[in-house]
Amino acid sequence: MSVVEGGQAAAVLQPRQLIVSLYGLYARQHDDWVSVAAVVRLMAEMGVDEQAVRSSISRLRRRGLLDAQRVDGAAGYRLTPLALEILAEGDARIFGRRRATSADGWLLVIFSVPESERDKRHQLRSLLIRMGFGTVAPGVWVAPGHLEVETGDALRRIGLDGYAEVFHGQHVLFGDPHENVGRWWDLGAFHELYAAFIERYGPLRERLARAVPIEQGAAFAAYVEMVTSWRQLPYADPGLPLELLPPDWNGAAAEQLFTDLRGLIAGPAGEHVAGELGTRGVARGGGDTTRRG
């Protein structure tokens, strides 16, 4: 059962998403490997049954993110190099995201894909959408300038760098930057996503602020659910400059809520996982051993 007040996080989050969070938060501190038995036990604490766990792991394996390996006779799965690269990039976006300023400029991605390779056009569009790019015109996409390295890495990783040109510059003439941001991104959708996150997890922060104790197992379930719920937000909103956003922008409040709750429950959550995995050094979780961006 979910421990999040006023929400049904475990009911709406897919088991595969929760498993990705579980591996991203804790497996890298355990030699990138977790036994199937441990995954089943930990996921059961979030209301996910064994069949759903095994089915989700199989899908992640087919996507090249997990490899089946036995360690000391125990069956388990290890993160692949591809998964480790993706998770490291995710750490920077999720836990170390920097909010851009107008001085950072803008990143433009312009691509042209032959009609005979329409599948690659779809891949490019899907990648840019996942990374939070806005659409200026057909084949012209824009994002805050500080995403230059991340964008280049992602394009190279999936072999699409040969179809795109990437430019970094400033908006110098014509058009209102505030109006442009409103056209290039669906700010109303962002506002709704942030509002839903605040509604779901705000009560938990209030409860903990009243010094109501939380058990390690409950902290673990709440933390993994919260990170899984949050993961999409720093990608949908790529860190747009606050000075270009509406006065009632609620993204900053949602970011603060995420930071506050992480500080309150990541520690006991990591201790719980350490006990389940029979290891030490998992006291915090959340990619703390990887790079920031």
Description:
This protein is of the alpha+beta class and 293 residues long. Helix content is 52%, strand content 12%. The protein contains 12 helices and 7 strands. It has helices at residues 9-12, 15-26, 36-44, 50-62, 81-94, 118-130, 148-157, 177-184, 187-209, 216-231, 233-236, 251-277; strands spanning 33-35, 66-71, 74-79, 106-111, 134-137, 140-144, 164-169. The strands form 2 sheets. It has a 4-stranded antiparallel β-sheet, sandwiched between helices. The chain has a 3-stranded antiparallel β-sheet with strand order 1-3-2. Helix 9 (187-209) crosses helix 12. The longest helix is centred in the C-terminal third of the chain and has 27 residues, at 251-277.
The portion of residues forming beta strands comes to 5-15%
Total DSSP E strands: 7
N-to-C span: 34 Å
Class per helix and strand makeup: alpha+beta
Shape annotation: globular
Question: Top keywords for this entry?
Answer:
about 290 residues, alpha+beta, three-stranded antiparallel β-sheet
Structural topology:
Elements: H1 9-12, H2 15-26, E1 33-35, H3 36-44, H4 50-62, E2 66-71, E3 74-79, H5 81-94, E4 106-111, H6 118-130, E5 134-137, E6 140-144, H7 148-157, E7 164-169, H8 177-184, H9 187-209, H10 216-231, H11 233-236, H12 251-277
Antiparallel strand pairs: 1-3, 2-3, 4-6, 4-7, 5-6
Structure summarized in a few sentences:
The protein contains twelve helices and seven strands.
